[in-house]
Structure formats: structure tokens, C-alpha cells
Design goal:
Blueprint (H helix, E strand, L loop, with lengths): L39 H16 L1 H14 L6 E5 L5 H10 L4 E6 L2 H9 L6 E5 L12 E7 L8 H10 L1 E20 L4 H9 L7 H12 L2 E12 L2 H5 L7 H5 L4 H17 L3 E12 L16 H6 L2 E2 L6 E2 L12
Parallel strand pairs: 1-2, 1-4, 2-3, 4-5
Antiparallel strand pairs: 5-7, 6-7, 8-9
Helix pairs in contact: 5-7
Length: 333
């Protein structure tokens, strides 16, 4: 949610530069975290916005796949960075139970404050922190995750290295992010021009697509990537997750001529009932290597519990492909 220093404003519809759309610029231009210094009204709108995102059917579908891809297990100690209002951390806490824990971290004091007010008595704890310099020792967690963060930071590789640092050998790192350049539509025109205009101002525009290669470069092993396509049949529905169809947001980012052409075409599509928009989010999983095996993964290095936990999601057929029988992995302790 709030991951790097910036300034922002919210528009009259409750949308703002804090939102998770193709609106973030990286580094100091990223409008995501000075919510702490904004008015109570802006803070309220931003919180309401993120509640709408969490409740959206397509975001729930992405998070369902991401949750089972991470495969949290009872008794595990997990990290959720960029936790926002803490809804995922609380869900993870249910899965790990009282014997486990979930550390939920966000750069925004306001976000953490709201998350704390929503605490449900589970094992999640909330703290302010910087994803590029986490206040945890090496090898501290069984698994770490972040969602829709890389698109907002100046140095995505540093983020993945930091997640890997605080995760134990054999543990998992799960990163979920958006590839806005994958956006496609039907029934309306000029989307390519809009994408080109926005991509020119943000070098993390395709962040989701690059996560797996960044994991490989960092040294994570058994990396895998699952694309999830989000689809929308009305611009109002799409605008909850994408800034493309938020007129107040786009008015300041497109030329007046392109703005008018684009939204006139969108309006005609709505009148005809043939609007269609889609984009892809990527769910990427990697395993932290063991010190004596920097470049190769073997089943024999894992305990059976490790191997069962590190299960790969099959998004087509559903469920987890867990290997648990002794006949399948006889060499495991």
C-alpha cells in the first residue's frame, strides 16, 4: 500500500494518487505515503478506497490464488510488507494459528493505525517500516510477501533482496504485482495511446512481468510465476482497480485532446454495452537457497515439512500440488 515517500491528493470521488492504478511514479514522485500529513478527509477517502479494492471481486480472485501459492501453514512466522489496512495479514494469522505469527509492516503510520483498530485478536502485529530497510534480522521468517509494491518503488531489486534477507533458507518469498502494459480493451479506442503516455513517466509500469527475473537475479530458487487476468465489463467497475477510467485522475496526465478522444470513445462503448477491459497481475514465488547450495535446488535439502509447505499452485485445475507420500519423495527426512 504505502511504500515510498511522496506527495498526493485525493479527488472528489475518493480516488487519489495513493491508489493502486497506473498512476504511481517511482521514488520521490510516487504519490503513496504522505497520507500521514494529509487532511483527515483525504485520509478517510484513501481508507475507503482501499476497502473498495479489497472487496472487489477481481482483487479477491487474485488474492485467493496468491494466498494458496504462498501456502501458509500452521505455526509459521510470516511477513506481510506494504500491508496497508492489514486485511491479508489477518487472514494469514488465521492460517498460522496461535503457534505462528504475522508481522504486518507499512511505511504509513496512518495505515498501521487503521490496521490496529481492526485487529481481531489473532497473531498479527502491526508496525511502521521501510521495505527497503526492514528492521528484522536475517533468516527471521518462514515466508515473506508483498503485494502491489514494486510498481511504486525506485529500486525493485533492493526490495526483493530485502525480502530474501529476512526469510530463512528454504523459506518462500511471494511477490504480487501488476503489469499495466498488458492492458487491453475492446469496444473503445485510443487505449494504446493512453498506455504509451503513462508508461513514459513510469519505468515500473510493467513491474509485475519483471518480478520472476528479478527473483532469479537475486538468487531465489525454484522460481515460478502465475499470471492472473482481471477483466471488467464496465468502466465504473474497472476504475476501482485501474486509474485509466478515473477522469479526475487522468485529466492531469493526458493531453486535453487525447483525454477527450479517449473518454468519448469509452462513453460510446458504454452506450452500446460492448465495453471490455483487462490487465494481468503476476503472482511470483521463489525459495531462499541454503548457504551451501547457492545455485541449485535438491529435494534432499528440505525436511518433509518444508517440501509440503513449498507447494506450487495450479491455477487452472485449482488446489495445491502437494507432494506428501513417502513413495514420491523417499529421500526426504
Amino acid at each position: 500500500m504505502y511504500v515510498t515517500d511522496s506527495t498526493a491528493k485525493a479527488d472528489q470521488d475518493g480516488h487519489s494518487d495513493y491508489e493502486n492504478g497506473p498512476m504511481a511514479t517511482n521514488s520521490s514522485g510516487n504519490a503513496f505515503v504522505r497520507i500521514d500529513n494529509d487532511s483527515a478527509d483525504v485520509q478517510r477517502r484513501v481508507v475507503n478506497y482501499h476497502d473498495r479494492v479489497a472487496a472487489h471481486h477481481e482483487m479477491q480472485r487474485v488474492r485467493s490464488v496468491a494466498f494458496e501459492t504462498l501456502a501458509p501453514a500452521e505455526g509459521e512466522h510470516l511477513l506481510d510488507v506494504g500491508c496497508g489496512l492489514g486485511e491479508i495479514a489477518r487472514q494469514l494469522a488465521v492460517r498460522v494459528g496461535g503457534g505462528g505469527s504475522v508481522a504486518a509492516v507499512d511505511l504509513s503510520e496512518q495505515a498501521i493505525s487503521v490496521a490496529q483498530t481492526r485487529h481481531d485478536g489473532g497473531s498479527a502485529t502491526y508496525a511502521v517500516g521501510d521495505i527497503t530497510a526492514l528492521d528484522f534480522p536475517d533468516n527471521h521468517f518462514d515466508a515473506a510477501r508483498c503485494e502491489r509494491v514494486l510498481q511504486h518503488v525506485q529500486d525493485p531489486d533492493r526490495v526483493i533482496k530485502e525480502l530474501a534477507r529476512v526469510t530463512r533458507p528454504g523459506g518462500r518469498v511471494c511477490v504480487i504485482d501488476t503489469d499495466w502494459s498488458s492492458s487491453v480493451g475492446d469496444g473503445f479506442d485510443h487505449l494504446d495511446e493512453v498506455i504509451s503516455s503513462l508508461a513514459a513517466r513510469d519505468h515500473n509500469f510493467a513491474a509485475g512481468r519483471t518480478v520472476r527475473s528479478r527473483m532469479v537475479t537475486t538468487g531465489l530458487q525454484r522460481t515460478t510465476a502465475f499470471p492472473v487476468t482481471l477483466r471488467f465489463t464496465s468502466p465504473a467497475d474497472a476504475a476501482v482497480l485501474s486509474g485509466f477510467f478515473n477522469r479526475n485522475f487522468m485529466r492531469d496526465r493526458l493531453s486535453a485532446e487525447l483525454f477527450n478522444r479517449f473518454f468519448a470513445s469509452v462513453d460510446r462503448s458504454v452506450d452500446r454495452g460492448d465495453f471490455l477491459f483487462a490487465f494481468t497481475m503476476w503472482i511470483c514465488l521463489g525459495q531462499v537457497g541454503f548457504p551451501d547450495q547457492p545455485s541449485a535446488f535438491t529435494q534432499a535439502t528440505l525436511t518433509r515439512a518444508d517440501f509440503n509447505i513449498y507447494a506450487l499452485q495450479d491455477p487452472v485445475h485449482g488446489g495445491l500440488n502437494r507432494l506428501s507420500g513417502t513413495d514420491e519423495v523417499p529421500s526426504l527426512p
